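User: Hello! My lab partner asked me to get a predicted holo structure for this protein. The small molecule is magnesium ion, SMILES included with the sequence. Please write out the structure tokens.
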Amino acid sequence: MTERMTGAQALVRALEHVGVDTVFGIPGGAILPAYDPLYDSTKVRHVLVRHEQGAGHAAEGYAQATGRVGVCMATSGPGATNLVTPIADAYMDSVPIVAITGQVASAAIGTDAFQEADISGITMPITKHNFLVTDPADIPRTIVEAFHIASTGRPGPVLVDIAKDALQSDTEFHWPPVMQLPGYRPVTRPHSKQIREAAKLMAEASRPVLYVGGGVHKARASEQLLALAELTGIPVVTTLMARGTFPDSHPLNLGMPGMHGTVAAVGALQKADLLIGLGVRFDDRVTGKLSSFAPHAKIVHADIDPAEISKNRHADVPIVGDCKEVIGDLITAVKAGGTGSYEEWTEQLSDYKRTYPLGYEEFADGSLAPQYVMERLSAIVGPDAYYVAGVGQHQMWASQFIGYENPGSFINSGGLGTMGFAVPAAMGAKMGRPDATVWAIDGDGCFQMTNQELATCAIEGVPVKIAVINNGNLGMVRQWQTLFYDERYSNTDLKTARRIPDFVKLAEAYGCVGLRCERPEDVDATIKKAMEINDVPVVVDFVVHQDAMVWPMVAAGTSNDDIKIARDMAPVWESED
Ligand SMILES: Cc1ncc(C[n+]2csc(CCOP(=O)(O)OP(=O)(O)O)c2C)c(N)n1
Ligand SMILES: [Mg+2]
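Assistant: Hello! Below are the structure tokens for the protein in complex with magnesium ion.
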């Protein structure tokens, strides 16, 4: 198929052909030529956001809820630099997005032209790949390549920066274009020798743990994981990025490991003699002080990105491959070679679970405990919703106190820890999954970074629900000040207790319904009321106690062995150690 058209028309046509249905963005000078044919597209819906950061996070939320590539668009200079945070966020959490930016005309590149920023240079270290396009003939091929790179292998963000004159000039449009990506061939099939080695170690181990990360859901391998866990009886820990990948209700699930992990999950890793790491990266928030992490364990490490393997911890058995294939092959190998027996181990871990369940402090003054809000959300809204968190204490409580049963149902910013993620990401998730209930769980600090996307939600008809966990503070930072800075609360009091801003009025100003809840006895009725409103977005201001803390905690840089279940309270491990 060959047709003559402008580069801008070729761009829109290519987006249609690769199956894009939603683009989040804001126009401006350099990208303006692309917005003209976009206006006529019946296949691509452009969602006008209020800040480009919102466009980027919305693309991420869309991608995470649908498994498809999310798309955002911005103009050159400040439009493009406003995308830097979500691009970095997508890079850290391996989220497939394509960011399309306009660039100044090719003759002006490098002259400090109006609204010029070297966005491909700026995003070089935070994109999986990026392109600067100056020839209109390259546009369709580049789009196909960008979508291919973003969605295959280890997913990630790809930037396509297009010079204004390339959008304006005429070109021949050919479809389908031929990709030119020599050397890009992600390995998905694991090596059979490594699989046999791993299965052998699993059979020989007496204290193995399946250490499951975000890569397992990205490979859509939850079913295989369940089969492997049940076949072998090996207990499972699910990292922040893997919550829901293995059902919380399953007896083999020990919960989340790491800085705010459960005693059972953290203890299991520390006492294990074998870790089977699947789609994980031995992140410092999981390992604590690396030299004392899982000191007795041999390591099997499977990941699609060879650069992750042995990056932080030496892998005795490295496996490069897609987790679905890896786990499938492990199942076959275990069936052939036999499984080990781990009753004593699983008994010990069940004992940790029973002795050290997650708990929290209730306040004598009758004020609201944030963890209680999570428990009630979990009970009333249930596991079929998507929960999208911001960053801070509320994020950890959302991970700890909501029961996740479905893969991908908890969406949050793990690697970068980006405040402001929740509202736009929830909007993107709801647009990708319009039939699902989507709850954002946000902090009063985070919410003030990106709540302008409430306008987008209200106008575009995206009825998300937002629980603002309003503790009046940058709570997570305040917690560190309580514990490590002698209760010197430097610049963490947001004074939202003074109702500046008043979140209910703010919601109303944006065309949303605003509700407030301040007492435990009103929580259920408030959540039920929010669940009944499905035509407009709802914001609930849950005013909670400012001194609630996230426990358990492994202080940054210390050993997982020194996990505390409350201030100055450590679990009692059995006498053998
Ligand atoms: C963009 C950005 N700036 C600063 C931080 C550092 N930080 C991490 S958590 C946090 C507090 C978040 O406050 P809030 O949204 O109210 O959540 P809470 O911890 O109170 O639940 C801050 C400032 C960050 N993660 N991201
Ligand atoms: Mg707060």
